[in-house]
């Protein structure tokens, strides 16, 4: 079994310095680097199964975006936005000494990937967008914003695990073992109970922008991308609709398309078939 390393890098926001944690699998000297970035209220360890498989070919790096997991919390919650996350990832790539990378991004991690891939002289050479695209549906954004701004405490792990399973039902995990691992990475001990692993203030910018009143249009960003791209969609997704998914094959980088049956927002790459989708695209141009 491939061992992982828990590391961190210092980054800068307008309010000061903060620490971004990341987990790394594979040979640290491997020049082929894969960066996997999680969704809005998730953590880098979501990619553990994918990382174990792909670490045979890559140095796999899975950050906890600031405000989540082992990373620090920002003093000003209004900086919990895509430009800050992109800036942090550029700092991380400098730490890795990675001139080019392959990128897998789930939901928010995909938006960060799009923003970076759309830049002139981007380091992103291949891009996987997991259940996210250039049009984000308002209803789904509102659903997500409604629960991430809460700060529940749980008296025991069983109660916490039941909550995680309820709010994460669209992930469509297949086994009890998968649900258990998801719960273990989603909460942390807090006194005599448990709390969620992220800063509830990550919801502040979403609420300030009145998320839920209109779809978010990122087509100009998507159309600036030139690297080979794979767009993966959960067949039951409420964030990436089928029409947008199909249009992604005709515009911008003209993405290759894949759909995961029986899953909503978003596929978790915890089973062999989903991992194979990513591996085939990244390693077989």
Q: How would you describe this protein?
A:
With about 280 residues, the protein is of the alpha/beta class. It has a single domain, classed as Rossmann fold. About 35% of the residues lie in helices and about 25% in strands. It has helices spanning about 50-55, 80-95, 110-115, 140-150, 155-165, 175-185, 205-210, 220-225, 240-245, 270-285, and strands at about 5-15, 15-25, 35, 60-65, 100-105, 125-130, 135, 155, 185-190, 195, 215, 230-235, 255-260. Strands 1-2-4-3-5-6-12-13 form an eight-stranded mixed beta sheet, sandwiched between helices. α5 (about 155-165) packs across α6 (about 175-185). The longest helix has 15 residues, at about 80-95. It is globular, with a radius of gyration of 18 Å.
- Count of DSSP-assigned helices: 10
CATH arch. level architecture: 3-Layer(aba) Sandwich
Describe the biggest sheet?
A: 8 strands, mixed
Low-pLDDT windows of residues: none
The CATH superfamily is known as Alpha/Beta hydrolase fold, catalytic domain
Order of helices and strands: EEEHEHEHEEHEHHEEHEHEHEH
The first-level CATH class is given as: Alpha Beta
> How would you classify the helix and strand content by structural class?
alpha/beta
As a whole number of angstroms, the C-alpha radius of gyration is 18 Å
CATH topology: Rossmann fold
Coarse shape: globular
Neighbour order of strands in the largest sheet: 1-2-4-3-5-6-12-13
Termini gap:
27 Å
Number of domains: 1
